[in-house]
Protein 1
Amino acid sequence: MRAKSVTEQARRAQIVAAAIATIAELDYAETSFKAIAARAGLSSTGLISYHFKNKQELVDVVFADVLERFQDFVNARMGQAGAREELRAFLVANIAFLREHRADMVAFLRIRANAAVTDGGIAASDHTALATLLRQGQEAGEFRAFDPDVMAVFVLAMRNGVVLRSGSLDLDVCEQELVAAVDLATRS
Amino acid sequence: MRAKSVTEQARRAQIVAAAIATIAELDYAETSFKAIAARAGLSSTGLISYHFKNKQELVDVVFADVLERFQDFVNARMGQAGAREELRAFLVANIAFLREHRADMVAFLRIRANAAVTDGGIAASDHTALATLLRQGQEAGEFRAFDPDVMAVFVLAMRNGVVLRSGSLDLDVCEQELVAAVDLATRS
Amino acid sequence: MRAKSVTEQARRAQIVAAAIATIAELDYAETSFKAIAARAGLSSTGLISYHFKNKQELVDVVFADVLERFQDFVNARMGQAGAREELRAFLVANIAFLREHRADMVAFLRIRANAAVTDGGIAASDHTALATLLRQGQEAGEFRAFDPDVMAVFVLAMRNGVVLRSGSLDLDVCEQELVAAVDLATRS
Amino acid sequence: MRAKSVTEQARRAQIVAAAIATIAELDYAETSFKAIAARAGLSSTGLISYHFKNKQELVDVVFADVLERFQDFVNARMGQAGAREELRAFLVANIAFLREHRADMVAFLRIRANAAVTDGGIAASDHTALATLLRQGQEAGEFRAFDPDVMAVFVLAMRNGVVLRSGSLDLDVCEQELVAAVDLATRS
DNA sequence: TATGAATGAGCATTCATTCAT
DNA sequence: AATGAATGAATGCTCATTCAT
């Protein structure tokens, strides 16, 4: 794999951005190269094929791109003292990212829901990390006894629910309610 | 709109059932008339077009069909004394329906995630009914103060999370944890 | 594999005929569904895809179709007493088929030259049968000592040479010369 | 037409060599500028277009290049006393060239079989020269009476047959059998 | 009602070629 | 002279839908 030139990188980034916008705006099933090219201002869908081996690679890159930016964003806002605080920080960071990058999160969830992302398990890291945090909080006595894997599913599902309805919900309220509900459901 | 004959109704039901199986088995994006016809044992995709105006109508009918059966199932298991009990009954009924009709629920969620269902608000009734229940529970002093619409989003999202991962989770554990978490998050 | 209807069979035959004409007229590499559809008077290349799984299947069917008709034609003209007579009959039958079905033979050779025909060895039967005949003639003392496999290659190559230049050669002369040359090269 | 610089000539030769290797390795139909560039170690297919007006010119040059080297090779091994010896020398030289330059011969035949080479008759010189030799041999009484043009087609076709199957045949045997068969078919 | 053949728009992808650098 | 990005036409193929029977 040769190093990509600056121009190449810029074009790929432009196409990835257009793909995110397209997936967020249209249904995943309606997202075609034609629609992406139109949004990116490209003269030909051939240019997408020129920069990406095939549609699967583009989807994978979009997925990995959002995931990386999401994780960087969230990790930068975590690192709190206790598990309860850490969990709260995780939720607040999620909502903050959603506020700033709604299209990215929507596209991310739609890809995960629809496509078999070929990412070697990276996609599940979200869940694993949260389950681990919950387990550690239990061992520290901060959380009550519950199944950490199932609770991680619940927490992420609530986050996803907010993302998918973020068009019609007040995110300030959502953040407050989410933090409160999760805290009540998990504290010892 | 003429009344549908018995044969007509039977054919439509057969196609709807095949569509549900197809959507649950394949990705929504991979669900074609050809795949549905194969699963229904039909000799031609033309028959689907004959019985449904277009693909959108079929999707709408599938959606409404599952929703109606789901609501009947759940309503038959509700009607408890208090709001807390009612909420618990709702959750238990949801998991029970999932246990018996996993493909229906998966198809339902996939349609809602992907397609712009043209149902004039029916799709939201799930949410509205739950929000109403939560509000009533608050008025009765059984639930703490929270935004009922947001909490309804949370509860339904948790249920959806269980549905989408029901292939790899123990539903007994899920039910128990779901009831506990929701109770803790809502009780006054 | 269901039985094919009469209409289906007719359409497939029509498309096969158009494919043969196209391959014989154009280069193999230039033979597209569009060119075939134009020659068959079809309104859409989609119809070819409707009747054949993919291009490879069409090519295989064309190949097998010509091969079968060729073999039937040749076999009906063989069955002579001795090996020398049999060999002569084979050559005469080949030229006769060429006279009546030049496009078929040209298409056949072009497919064999270019495509990896997926026919499970049928394609080589031509060679094998001829080599066997030569061997039997040697055992009967009618042919001199030579490598039957190599001689079979020679004989078929001469036949192919005539086919490919049949546009500018007198087939009567070719037949006479071919019979004479092969006889001289093989008799004991 | 300007004279080509040394660098230009070297590049063209490099591309021609890569094209020969590609055509011999892949099917003619699979030979793309991309495949040729990869085999030549070029960074861009644009370079091929820079050095050759279009694909047809490249194919023509490849064809003429192999033809010239083939003819030089064969001519250097001919010049025998009689026509029978000359014909034998021609065949031996052909097999010798094949032994040393199999890819070149395969590429040559594939181009001739598939593409309409625009060479103003150069391609036929092979045939013409052989036919002339045969005619002279007849006049000298060394060959029997046959149509020289048709016999030339036969001889070249046998040679081509060996080329196309040279992967699975023993060339020593082929040479011996070819010389013997042609001699028997032509001598008076 | 039901069939299956037909339609034509749409898809992702490959290709030779052009062009600015 | 060389690069690699860009172009747009062409490819095989799938799709929902129509239509004659």
Note: Chains C and A do not touch (no CB pair under 8 Å).
Protein 2
Amino acid sequence: MTRLADIDFSAASLDVARRLIGVTVLVDGVGGRIVETEAYDPGEAASHSFHGPTPRNFAMFGPPGFSYVYRSHGLHWCLNVVCREPGHAAGVLIRAIEPTHGLERMRQRRGLDDVRLLCSGPGRLSQAMGVTGAHNNLPLDAPPFELIACAEAPAVVSGVRIGISKAVELPWRFGLAGSRFLSKPFRD
DNA sequence: TTTACGATTAACT
DNA sequence: GTTAATCGTAAAG
């Protein structure tokens, strides 16, 4: 049984990343169940917080349980959950969700019908849920955000992270075992 | 001020 | 399998 109170955002990003699997995340009532996450920690070079605070990543240095939204490749928004205590600047990237709430809204925003392609990637799920830079540095336990814990602890698999060039060997990617909504399958 | 590049995606061959 | 799209950010000059 995973209750929302069991998710302590002041814990290490590894723990938070694993525990977020199965949790439902909504923005304005639209969203779904988290099936894939990645942990980032200032101790490793792949993290945006590795080089210290900047105008982009300041949200990571704020309180845990807040959002950190950044723009990737000039066109995609990516949603992160800040964890650890303020100043430590660790975070968890939400990489994929299983769409459950507001399917029509998400189809409209994404411009396609295939449920499987709606939210299977960090940029995709942000577009589907309407997340933009305006959602940066907001508390996740207050509107427009909403988190709903799952009834049972899900089976979680892990592997190496995707799309990075530093610290590529760390197995800090987590996913819901057997999910059809992952951005890429786990082979590890 | 200039420049190079990215925690990506989609559309190609 | 490869590559173009597209621009904010940060490091270099």
Note: The mean pLDDT of chain A is 90.
